[in-house]
Specification:
4 domains; Nucleotidyltransferase, domain 5; single chain; 5-stranded mixed beta sheet; alpha/beta
């Protein structure tokens, strides 16, 4: 079978004939080395394995390659690892086991290498605890390993269809080139798929505050990595994001975080007015339907207008975004009115900042530490789906089909 989406590669017989000819040339004094032959063979095996996988999974497609290195007794090989469209559903079996979990020793090692806060003596001690010999080459290998896995993590593809994607931000300070410390925003996206499993979609470090251009890049990155149909985005009221979601995901709904709204109003309103608003927002969380939710938001605006008619007017244009979660099954609404699914990661970011002296030493330090958290969290998240979401899968799929229509696989059943 010709692999969908790719050009036709050499057959196994052709490749092995070529390798045999190169071996003969090498025996006659050719400079072609055994390393190059093995590298070519491994790449071919991985290519054939993907072809077989796609023959068994007709719903999936080829999705190019990512580069990685593999160190064996013969040396370090430059490999082109084939990918598929649907997330991490395929991985060549010839590769070593995927990196699933990072223990505390590795976390300390990576911090020592990448935050510029550890001396070589401390790094050497950490390596010793891991049973690794200390050398400049060993340090280089670890840095390359981290870069390779971080690059793969940031480029990995996902399934097409999602219940919800949550985006939240952490604001802090980071040291940049020249030693200057600047304000940064760390945006994290977490998704819940149609079966109820949580995934870390990605993270983005931005100097300063967000813009429409930044959000376009973030959502386009999601699209490029396979995410196309989302029932609900749940976010804080970030500048420029509502319009970008509407433009790039026109069939998706957008829920603004009720928890962030409550916190913002606490800082703006007098104590007695805030008490009344808080009670109304608590009722909103358990409202029966959209109609009741709209009435409660109107009451919220009346209270807010007692202090600031201008702010109440701005909120009025966002009422639909604050009650969108009420369109979904009652059993999962508690997960959809707030960006709390991202809060665990934000708490980890804050702990990291405190351990590093109040600010982040570098962008690389931020990304590697977030990666470590992500690997550990996803290892736990993927063991089982979220119970309340899993119990509503049938209703969720009905909503999805009403929104996006039946796909070809559904029509064949």
């Amino acid at each position: 079978m010709i692999e969908r989406g790719l050009k036709v590669f050499k057959s196994s017989d052709e490749l092995f004939q070529e390798i045999w000819e190169e071996i003969q040339q090498r025996q006659m004094g050719s400079i072609t080395g055994l390393k190059e032959l093995i590298e070519k063979l491994i790449n071919h095996i991985m290519q054939k394995e993907r072809e077989l996988y796609l023959e068994r999974h007709l719903e999936d497609r080829a999705n190019g390659y990512y580069e990685r290195s593999l160190t064996l007794n013969f040396g370090t090989f430059g490999l082109k690892v084939p990918r598929v469209r649907i997330g991490s559903s395929f991985r060549p079996s010839i590769l070593p086991p995927a990196w699933k979990r990072v223990n505390k020793d590795y976390e300390e090692l990576l911090l020592g290498l990448l935050s510029n806060g550890y001396s070589k003596a401390q790094i050497k001690q950490t390596l010793k605890q891991l049973g690794m010999d200390y050398s400049e080459e060993a340090l280089k290998n670890v840095v390359e390993m981290v870069k390779e896995r971080l690059d793969y993590f940031k480029q990995r593809t996902f399934k097409c269809d999602w219940l919800s994607i949550f985006i939240d931000a952490y604001h802090g300070k980071m040291r940049v080139e020249g030693g200057k410390v600047v304000e940064v925003s760390i945006f994290v996206a977490v998704g819940i798929d149609l079966e109820g499993y949580k995934h870390l979609i990605g993270f983005w470090v931005l100097k300063g505050r967000e813009t429409k251009g930044f959000w376009t890049e973030v959502l386009q990155d999601m699209i490029n990595r396979g995410i196309h149909r989302v029932l609900l985005f749940v976010t804080d009221d970030f500048s420029g994001l509502r319009g970008v979601i509407k433009g790039l995901f026109p069939f998706s709904e957008h829920q603004l975080c009720v928890t962030h709204l409550r916190r913002n109003l606490k800082g703006k309103l007098k104590k007695e007015l805030y008490r009344r608003v808080r009670e109304l927002l608590q009722k909103l969380r358990v409202a029966e339907d959209e109609a009741e939710g709209r009435e409660l938001m109107e009451e919220v605006l009346k209270v807010v207008s007692e202090q600031s008619e201008q702010y109440a007017k701005r909120l009025r244009g966002k009422i639909d975004n604050y009650i969108a979660f009420l369109k979904y099954p009652r059993g999962i609404r508690g997960h959809l009115y707030t960006t709390n699914p991202v809060e665990g990661l934000n708490a980890g970011i804050d702990l990291m900042r405190l351990e590093l002296g109040g600010y982040f030493p570098s962008r690389q330090c931020v990304e590697v530490n977030l990666f470590i958290q992500a690997v550990n969290l996803e290892d736990r998240w993927l063991r089982k789906p979220m119970p309340k979401v899993a119990s509503c899968v049938y209703e969720i799929r009905q909503l999805f089909q009403l929104r996006y229509g039946l796909n070809e696989d559904d029509m064949d059943e």
